[in-house]
Structure formats: C-alpha cells, structure tokens
Amino acid sequence: MAGDILYFSPEALTDFSSAVFQHLALAPDDAALVTECLVKADLRGLGSHGVARIPLYAERLQRKLANPTPDIRINRVAPAAARVDGDDGMGMVVGTRAMEAAISIAKENGVGLSGVYRSTHFGMAAFYVIQAVKEDFIGFTFTNASPGMAPWGGAKPILGVNPLAAGAPAGKRFPVVLDMAMCVMARGKMRLMGLRGEPLPENVALDADGNPTRDGLDVHKGGTVLPFGGPKGSALAIWMEIMGGVLTGAAFAGEMRDLYGDFSGPQRIGHVFMAIRPDLFMPLDEFKKRMDTMIDRYVDSPTAEGFDEILMPGEPEEREEIRRREAGIPLDANIVGTLRKEAERYKVPFPRPLSRPDKPNPNRNTL
C-alpha cells in the first residue's frame, strides 16, 4: 500500500543491486562499487541517492548512455595532479578510481588532485571523501551537475545544484564529513517526496512558469530548485561549476544532460577530487588528537533553547548508519514497487523484507 514502509537488510539490497548491475554488463567489481555507494547512501539516511535510483541508472545503461565497461584513463599532468577520462562510465566507478589516484599522488607529494571529465552522475558525494578518510587522508569532492537550479536572480534552471563534500579523520570521535548541495533541498529528495505524494516545504522550488510549487516532481518538469542563502548558495554552485566543469574540460554551464529525462546522449559530468595528508605539519596521531579536542569543545559548549545536543557535520549520518545496519533500511512501498519491476525485468530475485526490524537507538558521537 502506498505510504507503507518496508525494511530490508543492507546485505540483501547489496546482493540485489549488484546482480542488477552485473546483468547490465558491469564487471563484478564495478557493480559492487556502484552498489556500495547506493546502499551506503541509504544507510546514512540519504534515500534520494540510494537504491531508489537503480531504475534511472539502469535506463541509461540500457540506452547505452552510460558505459558499463569504460576504459578509464588516468594521465599524470603534474607532480600533484592527474587528469581522468571517465569514458562515460558509471560515476561511482570513475569517481572511486579518481580518488584512488588522488590519494596515491598525495602519498608521494602531500597533496593529490584528480580532475575528471566524461563522467556521469556519481551518487552521494560523501562516498568519496569517506574513501579518503578511511585511509587517514583529508578529502574534498567537487562536481557539477545537470541543470536544476537558476542562478540567483534568474528563472531558468541552467545551473546545477553542484554538491560539495569534505571530510577529515579524527581519533576517538567520528570523522567530520560535510556533504551539501547548494540548494535549500536536494532535487533527488524533492523527486522522492513527489513520488510519495508528500508536499514540499514552502519556498524551496519554482515550477516551469516561475511560480512557487510544493510538488517535488515540478522541478523535473522545467522547474527550478532555489539556492540556500540566496546569492551565497548560487555563488558556491558557480564555484563548483568552475572546478568540476570549466577546469576539467567537462561540459559546463547547462551543457550537461539531465539524469532523469534527457536521453539524447551521455551526461558529460565533471568532478574534482583532492586528498591531503594530515601529517604534513605534525604527526598523524597529534592531528587526530587536535581534531578530537576541537570536536569536544564544540559539542560540550552550551546548547541553545530547543536543542538537546550539538552535532558535528556527518554525525547524524554516522548514527543513522549504526542504527540501520541493525534495524534494516526503510524503503517506501512505492519505491519497492519500482524495484520489483526492475527485478522482473532483469530476472533477478528481489529480497524479502524483514519481518520485524529491531530499533536500536545509538546516542553517542564517538567510535
């Protein structure tokens, strides 16, 4: 029934997703990378970038608008930089290889940079900075995206929401992980709310005629999301366009094709990945202790009225991942219905929902 929530184990969704992408001609390792990114997003509470997107990616693969077997070329263009030709591969595969290159360069030079062109939508931006943090590096991710937002003062969605992600390891504390789009609310989340029949909050989007709308599907029918902070969000999105599009040689300024409905050709998205060694100015252990001290001072400071605690960027997602790994990943029945159709289409078994998920509630901000 519409509106019902079903719970699935992360392992079951992983097996299902991987099987679908292997059916679509991705190599097992590449299918696993795409799947890991999608399930990680669901675990962290970012359902708009999770397995709900499988039908979208599958459609582009079926139409040969994304390359299931890309020849990803990494060309070292400077001591601390590489240019990456993604060959229109799945963005999760291209992005992971590019961040690997940035980390490898940073091990040699302290800082490593990868600029990517000819890529596709790469899912959750935090996925790549988490990749760096796991290896004790500071990570940055910049990307451009298909048009979905008007620049401040404009009415045409020529600018992407162009997310920025950054992450730094800590010691006993969770790593600090920032992942944010430049709009008030992510387009993917609006789409998900539209599919569920849930109204958007006020003042987050305009329809194709430039009128305020509360229908999340309007933004994918010529409408536009609104930047957070007015001109500030718009300016940051333009900066991401410079980094992800202009600098890398990828498509830019409205040239990228929409993931949801433009099937006229590859997306031609661009990304930049950066890795920095935290031990450039001090031993790694000292850096991590300083991170813990900084976090302690912030979270232990007095709370404002209406707040019980202070959380660091990425901490709500870390807590949610702990909970969902035990309780299961919730999926709306409408999303489950679309995934079942994909299972039938590709003759892949669809997992059974959990009968009764547990509900642990971790309330801590340490590892």
Task: Describe this entry's structure for a reader.
- This protein has 367 residues and is of the alpha+beta class.
- The chain is 37% helix and 15% strand.
- α1 (10-23) runs antiparallel to α2 (28-43), α2 (28-43) crosses α4 and α4 packs parallel to α5.
- A hairpin with a 7-residue loop joins β6 and β7.
- It folds into 2 domains: 1-62 and 328-357, Orthogonal Bundle (Hypothetical Oxidoreductase Yiak, Chain: A, domain 1), CATH 1.10.1530.10; 70-183 and 227-300, Ribosomal Protein S8, Chain: A, domain 1 (2-Layer Sandwich).
- The strands form 3 sheets. It has a 7-stranded mixed β-sheet, sandwiched between helices. The chain has a two-stranded antiparallel ribbon with strand order 1-11. It has a two-stranded antiparallel ribbon with strand order 8-9.
- Mean pLDDT is 93; it is low at 360-367.
- The protein starts with a strand and ends in a 21-residue tail after the last helix.
